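Notebook, p. 212. Picked up where the previous page left off. The plan for this session was modest: take the two constructs that came back from the sequencing core last week, fold each one, and keep the raw output in the notebook itself so nobody has to go hunting through shared drives later. Recording the first one now, exactly as returned: residue sequence, then the structure token string.
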Amino acid sequence: MDLNHSRSVTLNDGNFMPVLGFGTSASDEVPKNKAGEATKVAIDVGFRHIDAAYFYQNEEEIGKALREKMADGTVKREDIFYTTKLWLTFLRQELVRPALERSLKKLGLDYVDLFIIHFPFALKPGEELVLKDASGEIILDIVDFRDTWEVSLEKCKDAGLTKSIGVSNFNDKQLEMILNKPGLKYRPVCNQVECHPYLNQSKLLEFCQSKDIVVVAYSALGSHRDPNWVERDSPYLLEDPILNAIAKKHNRSPGQVALRYQLQRGGWGGGVVLAKSFNEKRIKENFQVFDFELTPEDMKAIDGLNRNFRYAKFLFAVDHPHYPLSEEY
């Protein structure tokens, strides 16, 4: 793979993942074509890790952007690390491969680099992303994610539809359930979770490192505050006075400091971080995090901001037996 390996981590299956990824989720108000435009900007700036999902409903636009950047010679397919995610209505074994094939068709690609289970809990299958009952409650489904993993994700990897497989929003006990499964063929290469200075996930990072699972940090800059997912009175991470003081010292933005913080934690299980913005100036800014370093004192001060605060709590699934956020980590 033609990647700058000094800016990549080696996954437990031998593949490489760039440590800085471009996130493509957006609230419903953002036109879908914005994701495609922003992806092209991100690739021109230097991003090679594109993090997407079926749920974001913009893979057609992102696929078109990727193919245009390949056609104009900016990148080759092997330069790009593309992640997609298995949505919750597709966790039943027979639905997994068709879901991935649907994403590949939208993208116009033969394979993805990483396919991950978006959450450990399932929703009722159907064409709609979220099915609701007569009273407006989201309808949950009970599926053993270990079967989803063994019968379906592992087979998708064997079939060459994805290079690597992993999970997202899993707690330590749920990861153990997969790792301890009899007949396990492939371990998850990563666990993508909310992670930022207000929720630094130090215990989960340590646990994952001990199992050779890479933690990928999302919402590393706080959150885009989509009212469907995030409470309106949530604190603004990038307005934090300590983060701003450190940013001023380095002549950087608070966002650059928040991203750099995750990258420098790489020695003990962190080290991969996603940055999401559809604003050209910020996309460029978010990539400029490799040419400065936070001091040990900076890192300690940012560690001290942790308050175990989650922007995304997914409370609609709080009663599901596989709801992951009731555990300590």
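Okay, moving on. Second construct, recorded in the same format:
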Amino acid sequence: MKETILGVDVTDKNYKEISESIIYDINAGKQSFIVAVNPEKVLKAQKDEKLRQLLNQATYQIPDGIGIILASKIKKGNIRERVTGIDLLFKISQMAEQHQKSIFLYGAKPEVNELAKQNLLKYYPNLNIVGTMHGYEKDEQLIIDKINESKADILFVGLGSPRQENWIIENMKKLDVSIFQGVGGSYDVLSGKINRAPAIFRKFGLEWLYRLLVEPNRIKRQIKLPIFLIKVLMSKNES
């Protein structure tokens, strides 16, 4: 099931349910596209119809942000669990290891991409990573050929949003891949280039507060959360 928040669809599936659906999609030969949805993207989509359509075109729009959970509660919806992009990457990798599915890592700088691969294998030693490609390659046909030659089941794309989502939409039909996930800056975290918020912050959905404490100049972005919630409240009153 999905809920619509300010015109953007969001799935109410949790990690386990999405992982099970992904296994089904792979075995059925179905192509599926995962995109992370947060308040900032929803606000942008209100002004950018192309972005809104892109987000709604995805198979799974995961609720990546405490603001989405709060919005669902305001609307008396069923979304109760955050599904972050990087944690879903881990869950999918775990599932792929267990079910002998293969993965390709595309995006980021060459050294970041390689470190991300090495560290992902530390978590899941039997994970079948069949290929990698950094995000600075300009030859699109070379990228497509390398991915297809790898025969990967799952493709993680880390080109930044919305570039990665646009790339996936433009190339899905050219690729023999079942599952596409835009993973944003997850490779930077996987490689150790950027540290995640401590577990206590993540547990309570307060990564935004941690990032604000570490990077005070993010205040302009963080102020969008109350703006988003006010818009949700207003839309609820109008309906």
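Notes on construct two before I forget. The chain has one domain: 2-199.
Flagging for discussion at group meeting.
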